[in-house]
Amino acid sequence: MKLLLALGLLLLISCSGSQIKKDSDEPQTTDLRIVGRIASVSKAGQFVLIQKYGPGFLPANALYQSRGSDGRTSSLRPSGERVRDFFAADLLNGNPQKGDAVLAYPMPKTEKEPDETSLDGPETTPSDRPGSTTEHEESDLRP
């Protein structure tokens, strides 16, 4: 009996040191925010009203998506129209229903694109171009 107990204890101790690692390739959803719910869908299906949870505005620089309890998703684009805590949003695709959760994903940060002048090199002034003269050089040439 003591041997069986010791063997079980040894097995528990040996398993406690190993940890399951998550794949680092999976996108992290820690920035995902539930910002509201679908309050209504237009009969034509072109836009929805989002009832925002809490005070304030919808987060800027975010992608919006609605999710139903059955796994349905829809892409939304807020149009900027607001009445109290209701925000209008254009329906880009999907089939949202009243009560679906509205999620905001922060837009990925992109590197600033290089300026056009940096691709062509430094800007040149007329005096730097071959065969050109400046006002000062022209005054020296006059008699």
Layout of helices and strands, plus pairs?
Elements: H1 2-16, E1 33-41, E2 47-52, E3 62-67, E4 73-83, E5 86-94, E6 101-106, H2 116-120, H3 135-141
Antiparallel strand pairs: 1-2, 1-6, 2-5, 3-4, 3-6, 4-5
Please provide a written account of the structure.
The protein is α+β, with helices and mostly antiparallel strands and 143 residues long. The chain is 19% helix and 33% strand. The protein is built from three helices and six strands; from the N terminus they run αββββββαα. The protein has helices at 2-16, 116-120, 135-141, and strands at residues 33-41, 47-52, 62-67, 73-83, 86-94, 101-106. It has a six-stranded antiparallel barrel. Strand 4 and strand 5 form a beta hairpin. The chain is elongated. Mean pLDDT is 76; it is low at 117-122.
Q: Estimate the helix proportion, in percent.
A: 10-25%
Distance between the termini: 120 Å
The ordered string of helix (H) and strand (E) elements is HEEEEEEHH
Beta content: 25-35%
Observed structural traits:
6 strands, six-stranded antiparallel β-barrel, single chain, alpha+beta, 33% strand, 3 helices, 143 residues, 19% helix
Brief account:
With 143 residues, the protein is of the alpha+beta class. It is 19% helix and 33% strand.
